């Protein structure tokens, strides 16, 4: 593992009875970056995060955080904060007590940030946690995750029940605080378009396998949608792999995997074609769909043997 690696995962696999939740996952995550861990329901995101935080075991392979297996090394665990969608707190805990115990556990805890966020989310700190609404409960997790300023923070779909305004507060404050106190953030989310601008690096997992592991900017440049006269679109697309195709009479709109240079862009313009960028959400959805199709083909071929 190089000195610049925060998380190193090698050939990690995990099977629950007949479900292969992780299938030979290898990844390196650098410190001080915001990662998006994206994927469909049941793709393996929570399983991966729970192994990385020492709350679950892999059947095969290794996972290291700052050079240590998390479950064997307490000092490493205290550098990690894991906020889960269905975070559990002790019965009868009040909100402020949850913050007090987090402050004791996380050495970089920032009380001022916690208080600012309490105000921003309008959270009743004296109320018992079990009486909170679903969105308020999520706000407690978000506040702990942010105010912990842990070296690595995992947010596993932390927004359940948060309204659009509260989610925007979360995104804005995360970016603001990250700019001042960079750390490694791993954010798992289904709301890809909402979080797209936050992410510096994107990891897409599908059926336990990594299907995309790419810098977010680079990833956006790997596909383009070409729209115009169907024959010209076809000519321009040539043999580039097609991710998606829409036809409307003589017009067509084709999304291709290609990184265009300025000459090719000029050529498209001369041909009267329109080029538009592909959103992260589209790329992720298309990758998951093509993985499903390929896996389906693999499995059908296997079955015939
Ligand atoms: N304790 C368990 N016992 C059996 N199967 C499990 C267990 N935990 C997870 N699984 C299965 O493993 C697969 C991966 O689950 P995981 O929770 O990691 O997915 P996820 O990507 O976090 O999904 P979601 O986005 O829906 O939260 C799923 O098929 C799930 O049903």
TrEMBL record:
Its EC number is 3.6.3.-. Keywords: ATP-binding, Hydrolase, Nucleotide-binding. Residues 7-232 form the ABC transporter domain. One of its GO terms (molecular function) is hydrolase activity. The lineage of its organism: Bacteria, Bacillati, Actinomycetota, Actinomycetes, Micrococcales. InterPro entries: AAA+_ATPase (IPR003593), ABC_transporter-like_ATP-bd (IPR003439), P-loop_NTPase (IPR027417). This is ABC transporter, ATP-binding subunit. The keyword Phosphoprotein does not apply.
């Amino acid at each position: 593992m190089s000195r610049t690696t925060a998380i190193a995962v090698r050939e990690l696999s995990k099977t629950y009875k007949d479900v292969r939740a992780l299938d030979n996952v290898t990844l390196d995550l650098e410190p001080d970056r915001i990662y998006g861990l994206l994927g469909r329901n049941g793709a393996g995101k929570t399983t991966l995060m729970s192994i990385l935080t020492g709350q679950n075991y892999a059947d095969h392979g290794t996972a290291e955080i700052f050079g240590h297996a998390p479950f064997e090394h307490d000092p490493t665990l205290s550098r990690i904060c894991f906020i889960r969608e269905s975070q559990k707190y002790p019965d009868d805990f009040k909100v402020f007590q949850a913050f007090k115990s987090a402050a004791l556990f996380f050495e970089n805890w920032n009380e001022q940030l916690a208080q600012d966020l309490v105000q921003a989310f309008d959270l009743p700190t004296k109320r018992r946690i079990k009486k909170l609404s679903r969105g308020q409960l999520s706000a407690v997790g978000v506040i702990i995750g942010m105010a912990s300023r842990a070296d690595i923070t995992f947010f596993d779909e932390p927004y359940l029940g948060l309204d659009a305004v509260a989610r925007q507060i979360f995104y804005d404050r995360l970016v603001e605080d990250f700019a001042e106190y960079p750390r490694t953030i791993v954010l798992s989310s289904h709301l890809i378009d909402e979080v797209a601008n936050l992410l510096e690096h994107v990891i897409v997992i599908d059926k336990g396998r990594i299907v995309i592991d790419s810098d977010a900017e680079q990833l956006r440049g790997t596909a383009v949608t070409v729209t115009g006269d169907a024959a010209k679109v076809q000519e321009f697309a040539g043999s580039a792999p097609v991710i998606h195709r829409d036809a409307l009479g003589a017009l067509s709109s084709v999304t291709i995997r290609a990184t265009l240079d300025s000459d090719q862009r000029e050529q498209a313009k001369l041909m009267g074609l329109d080029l538009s960028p592909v959103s992260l959400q589209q790329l992720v959805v298309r990758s998951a769909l093509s993985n499903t199709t390929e896996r389906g083909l693999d499995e059908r071929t296997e079955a015939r043997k």
